[in-house]
Specification:
This protein is of the alpha/beta class and 144 residues long. It has five helices and six strands; from the N terminus they run αβαβαβαβαββ. Strands 2-5-1-6-3-4 form a six-stranded mixed sheet, sandwiched between helices.
C-alpha cells in the first residue's frame, strides 16, 4: 500500500493510468460490458463498484480540458433524454472531485460507446451492476 493512493487501485491499474499520455482514454466498464472482447489492455477490479473506482481514478488522473467531451457515457437504449442512474451517480463523483467547473458527462449511443471503448488505451472492468455503469475518461495534462 502507498500513502495517498486508494488501495482499490491494483498495481496493474496504476501502471495502466501511468502509461497513458495526454489525449489517451480509459474506459471504466460495468459487470455486463464485454471487456475481454473489446480491450486492448484490460485491468480487472472485480469487487469494486463503478463510483468507487471512478473516485479513486479521479484522485490521480487529470481530465482533458483542451477538447470537448472528455467524459463520455452510454445513453440508455431507446432514451432520447435523461441520464441513466449510474451515469448520474458518476456525474456527482466528478463534481465532488473536480469542483463546480467539472465537465458534464456527454452521452453517446450504445454502438458509438462500444467503438470508443475498443479504441481506448485500456479498459478497467469493475463489478458495477447497474445498467449503463460505463464511462470513458480522456486524460489531460499536469502543468509544470
Amino acid at each position: 500500500m502507498l500513502i495517498g493512493i486508494d488501495p482499490i487501485l491494483s498495481p496493474d491499474a496504476l501502471a495502466l493510468l501511468r502509461a497513458m499520455g495526454h489525449g489517451d482514454t480509459v474506459a471504466l466498464a460495468d459487470a455486463n460490458f464485454p471487456s475481454e472482447a473489446n480491450a486492448r489492455r484490460l485491468v480487472r477490479l472485480d469487487g469494486a463498484g463503478g463510483e468507487q473506482v471512478l473516485d479513486a481514478v479521479l484522485r490521480l488522473l487529470p481530465i482533458d480540458d483542451f477538447e470537448p467531451d472528455p467524459l463520455v457515457a452510454m445513453q440508455a437504449v431507446g432514451a432520447t433524454e435523461g441520464m441513466p442512474d449510474a451515469v448520474a451517480a458518476f456525474q456527482r463523483v466528478v463534481v465532488h472531485r473536480l469542483g463546480a467547473s467539472a465537465p458534464r458527462i456527454a452521452l453517446v449511443d450504445r454502438h458509438a460507446f462500444y467503438a470508443r471503448a475498443r479504441n481506448a488505451f485500456g479498459i478497467i472492468a469493475t463489478a458495477e451492476r447497474r445498467f449503463y455503469g460505463n464511462l470513458i475518461l480522456r486524460k489531460g495534462v499536469i502543468p509544470a
